[in-house]
Amino acid sequence: MAIGVTATTALVAVAAAAALLALVLALLWSRRQLAQARDEARRNRRLADLDGLTGLHNRRYFHELLAREVARAQRYGRGLALVVFDLDDFKSINDRLGHLAGDAVLAETAERARGVVRSADIACRVGGDEFAVLLPEASGREAELLCGRLHRAVSSTAVAEAGNVSVSAGIAELQADDDPNTFFERADQALYRAKERGKGQVVRAPGRNAPSDATRRPGTASNQ
């Protein structure tokens, strides 16, 4: 009888150990599946934030980031600058060479821009041939220097099939009375003024109530 009880007890112990092992394995598998699902969600989120053609962040991500960075800069009294730029005569490149060649020009421009921004800067494609670079902890002067680097990077050698191209840019430095919309609009309006005044121009937006001034070549921008 004692032998039978011992054998039964051993079988129960083995069964309990097997059940525990199965539970542990199931938990480990569940954790692994959960981690994989989280990784997949992060990958999908990153892909949703990127422009498919250039690999830069896209317009939706840019405006989300802009709102966060404006709020952070105003809360802590930090600098924030914004550069909006586009390619001069890009429509003629599309008309002359076709849209595939135009896409190649945009992709090459984005790659060159990525090579000259600071590590803290965020470059985005915000539509068509228009790009934006957000510069946290930066002044308008640092944005001007970036425009000079952009101009040299893009204009110094031929871009894909288009040959030599130039960029025009608008700069805004965050003001106390800015919100994300007015901040972007000031930079975008500065770009519009630059386009009006010729190719390869940079215009720096004044404060919202400041008078306008002249524009300059890349790297030496002044107020509108």
Write a concise synopsis of the structure shown.
The protein is 55% helix and 14% strand. It is α+β, with helices and mostly antiparallel strands and 224 residues long. It has 2 domains: 1-48; 59-204, Alpha-Beta Plaits (2-Layer Sandwich).
Describe the model:
This protein is of the alpha+beta class and 224 residues long. It has two domains: 1-48; 59-204, Alpha-Beta Plaits. The chain has six helices and five strands. The protein has helices at 2-48, 59-76, 90-97, 99-116, 140-155, 180-196, and strands at residues 80-87, 122-127, 130-136, 167-173, 202-204. It has a five-stranded mixed β-sheet, sandwiched between helices. The longest helix has 47 residues, at 2-48. The radius of gyration is 28 Å and the shape is elongated. The chain starts with a helix and ends in a 20-residue tail after the last strand. The relative contact order is 0.13.
Topology, pairings included?
Elements: H1 2-48, H2 59-76, E1 80-87, H3 90-97, H4 99-116, E2 122-127, E3 130-136, H5 140-155, E4 167-173, H6 180-196, E5 202-204
Parallel strand pairs: 4-5
Antiparallel strand pairs: 1-3, 1-4, 2-3
Helix pairs in contact: 3-4, 4-5
